[in-house]
Specification:
The chain has 739 residues and is mainly beta. It folds into 3 domains: 24-50 and 119-235, no CATH class; 322-514, Peptidoglycan recognition protein-like (Lysozyme-like), CATH 3.40.80.10; 516-737. Helix content is 11%, strand content 27%. The strands form 10 sheets. Strands 1, 5, 6, 7, 8, 9, 10, 11, 12, 13 and 19 form an 11-stranded mixed sheet that branches. It has a 6-stranded mixed sheet with strand order 16-21-20-23-18-24. Helix 7 (439-456) packs across helix 9. It starts with 23 loop residues before the first strand and ends with a strand. Residues 1-25 are annotated as: Disordered. Residues 336-496 form the N-acetylmuramoyl-L-alanine amidase domain. This is Peptidoglycan recognition protein family domain-containing protein. Belongs to the N-acetylmuramoyl-L-alanine amidase 2 family. Residues 320-490 form the Peptidoglycan recognition protein family domain.
Length: 739
């Protein structure tokens, strides 16, 4: 099946097109100079707070002001009392500052990821509320050779639609691998996403004497251009200042979940007549009508997967709806990173920072803002994440080449420093430190990861081979699963407690979409020559040379539909046909000797034989044996035509033609409880028997009674074993299927 162009895929929501308006410069608030000394705007809030605003020369000053200077009134004057716009609490922490009674002292203590509500030692930077042009993304940057003060934390609050947010934290984002740094690259924080803010206030805690050089806050509009407007002096305050009305919670304001109101649309498929073959790799016809969803026409999806809203598979995991870089308006002029690819091993889950208050129409502009922040402001040359997901579950391509990555590969991003190579970085657009993400984010992340993992043949039951360097959450040396959070490999709380807690469920949702896993051997050795995934877990699998090239490949059957592949790789089916009824027994053979295998339907003792890979009536109908017989298919006499053999216990009744009548000969082999396979084990052109007992195989090179010609141990007792000529050398060997 071909995939629709990402640029042509519809948006899941009925929203107005993204109209970012004319290009606008980025506003940059300069907080320290090249020597790390604070600018006037960085100290203005401290002066309003009543401290002596220590200079950035190592002096600490009176950050714990007492008396009237440290009172609630002083905090209110700086806009620091309460949570802002009715979102705080009667006693509220604002980036570590708490309300204080007159005459008391604002005390402080160190902060850690384990104790985020601890009092703060000092405030290094505090701007006043600053009116700005509207921006959608904000981020703090500084000289890459420097660091924020030890234990420092960064807080922003923004004015959206006349209402101030709480103080919200954004963390330092160390996302480049070693060796990727280049001249001009800046250190910085996560992108802070807004719903269109027109005022901002910034607070940085820590030692003012240890501030980095070139500390700047960039405010990025919907349609940014490289020009900058730099602010060093405090401008006029916004008309709407933070208010001090308390509320009953300190939790960040949660946006409402839109589950039930909007959803990602079901994938649609073109109509197909079940009596007509659908052939060719470009076929998109997998269901009975153009309005039928993927979930409606594909059987065998687990109940858990259906409840999660993840997309089921048939022969391959379909690519979910993804807006390409061209679709969201990536400016190619600011992209200076050259794509590189690596074998995909794992997925790293992220979130951004911000208010979570954006609208559907703003999502593409926010992605452009994150792109500008990463590519231009931080000089990475491109966006760091491979994919981004908005709160309605819409997926956006991030890093260049992520959609075009070859199967089993992923473009190397900049999302988890030291762990970008061989991982897929996918980020939720929003802050999920304390609020749960909408289900749509979960569903879309599962779909994207399942699609890429299926292309890579990744088995989620196996370790990723990646170990943690040691973080506040994960011990050093711990092996990581195939899906893990940024906090497992970095000094961050990303992807937030809510998302981190459902990573096991995300793994199960991805696994529910995983295709069947095959290991094919070209001899009887212990190591597979070929490994790949194909076919829904519920699909029945058949082996045949469907195109006559001498190589056996797979067909996956769901109901009465066959998804036929002409190569032993993860790929879209080359041919899709409907034949027979869902409950029919299916046999595969070259019935007419033309070098191509086709299907036969068995109903009791009647066989409906088709001589082409097409839908339609049988070319031949014959009766043979009894309804309860076990039937084997083989070229018993080497005439290049497959025929039937009936097994009753350990006796085989072999027929050398597809015809009604008595057996041409009878032979005894093995035991009644044995599992029996047929194949041309020695390449002489004749198929013979092999008896399987657990993981041991007793192989006979003639259709005759007597001991086995050789024995092999292969796979596990619970494996489904397939027989085929996987490399076209004329000799059959074994393959293992593991669900």
């Amino acid at each position: 099946m071909t995939e629709a162009s990402a640029d042509d895929l519809p948006l899941p929501l009925d929203t107005a097109p993204d109209d970012p308006g004319p290009a606008a410069p980025v506003t940059v608030i300069s907080l320290t100079d090249l020597a790390g000394r604070r600018t006037a705007v960085a100290e203005e809030g401290l002066e309003q707070l009543g401290t002596d605003a220590p200079a950035a020369t190592g002096a600490t000053g009176a950050t714990g002001a007492t008396g009237a200077a440290g009172s609630a009134a002083a905090l209110a004057a700086a806009g620091l009392h309460g949570g802002g716009a009715g979102r705080g609490l009667a006693t509220v922490r604002l980036g570590g500052l708490a309300d204080a009674a007159p005459g008391s002292t604002l005390t402080a203590a160190t902060t850690t990821a384990q104790n985020p509500d601890a009092d703060l030692d000092k405030i290094a930077v505090l701007t006043p509320p600053i009116a700005t042009e509207e921006f959608l993304v904000a981020g703090l940057t500084w000289d890459a050779q420097d660091r924020l003060p030890t234990g420092a934390r960064v807080f922003l609050r923004v004015l959206e639609d006349g209402e101030w947010s709480q103080w919200l934290e954004t963390e330092a984002e160390d996302a480049l691998d070693s060796g990727e740094a280049r001249a001009g690259v800046k250190a910085g924080t996560d992108p802070f996403v807004t719903g269109g803010a027109d005022a901002v206030q910034l607070q940085v805690t820590g030692d003012a004497g240890a501030l980095p050089a070139g500390l700047e806050l960039s405010l990025i509009p919907a349609n940014p251009e490289p020009a900058e407007e730099v602010i060093t002096e405090a401008p006029e305050p916004p008309a709407e200042l933070p208010t001090e009305e308390p509320t009953a919670t300190t939790e960040p304001a949660a946006f409402r979940s839109l589950l039930g109101d909007v959803s990602q649309p079901a994938a649609t498929v073109a109509p197909v007549s079940l009596g007509t073959a659908v052939t060719g790799a470009s076929s998109a016809a997998l269901g009975p009508s153009s309005s039928t969803s993927t979930a409606a026409w594909t059987s065998g999806v687990t109940a858990a997967a259906q409840m999660a809203g993840v997309m089921p598979a048939a022969a391959t995991v379909p690519r979910p709806t993804i807006t390409s870089r061209a679709g969201w308006g990536a400016d190619p002029k600011i992209m200076s990173w050259r794509p590189g690819y690596a074998t995909l091993k794992a997925a790293v889950v992220h979130h951004t920072a911000g208010t979570n208050d954006y609208t559907p129409a703003q999502s593409a502009s926010i992605v452009r803002g994150i792109y500008f922040f990463h590519a231009e402001t931080r000089d990475w040359g491109d966006i760091g994440y491979n994919f981004l997901v908005d709160k309605w579950g819409r997926v956006f391509e991030g890093r260049t080449g992520s959609l075009a990555a070859p199967a089993g590969k992923m473009t190397i991003g900049a999302h988890a420093g030291g762990y970008n190579t061989g991982t897929l970085g996918i980020s939720a657009m929003g802050d999920y430190t304390k609020v749960s993400p909408p289900r749509e984010i979960f569903n879309s992340m599962a779909n994207v990861i399942a699609w890429q993992f299926a292309r890579a043949g990744i088995d989620l039951d196996t370790p990723s081979g990646i170990t943690s360097p040691g973080t506040a959450y994960t011990p050093k040396g711990r092996g990581l699963a195939r899906i893990f959070g940024h906090r497992d490999v970095g000094a961050t709380t990303c992807p937030g407690n809510a998302i981190q807690s459902w990573l096991p469920s995300l793994t199960r949702a991805v696994d529910s979409q995983a295709l069947q896993l095959f290991y094919l051997n070209n001899d009887f050795g212990p190591t597979a020559d070929t490994q790949f995934r194909y076919g829904d877990k519920s699909a029945q699998i058949y082996v045949g040379d469907w195109d006559g090239d001498g190589v056996d490949t797979l067909a996956a059957r769901v109901g009465r539909t066959f998804y036929i592949s002409n190569s032993n790789t993860y790929n879209e089916p080359d041919t899709v046909i409907a034949y027979g009824r869902p409950g029919d027994d299916i046999l595969v053979g070259d019935w007419d000797g033309n070098g191509t295998d086709t299907f036969a339907v068995r109903r009791g003792a009647i066989y409906h034989v088709r001589n082409s890979i097409t839908s339609g009536p049988a070319d031949q109908v014959v009766a043979y044996g009894r309804a309860g017989d076990e039937v084997l298919v083989a070229d018993w006499d080497g005439d290049k035509r497959d025929t039937f053999g009936v097994r009753r216990g350990s006796i085989y009744f072999v027929k050398n033609s597809v015809a009604t009548g008595v057996a041409d000969y009878t032979v005894a082999y093995g035991r009644p409880a044995d599992t029996v396979l047929t194949g041309d084990w020695d390449g002489d052109g004749r198929d013979t028997l092999a008896v399987r007992r657990g993981a041991r195989y007793y192989i006979k090179n003639t259709v005759a009674t007597g001991p086995a010609d050789f024995e092999v141990v292969y796979g596990r007792a619970e494996d489904l074993i397939l027989v085929g000529d996987w490399n076209g050398d004329g000799t059959d060997s074994l393959g293992v299927r593991r669900p």
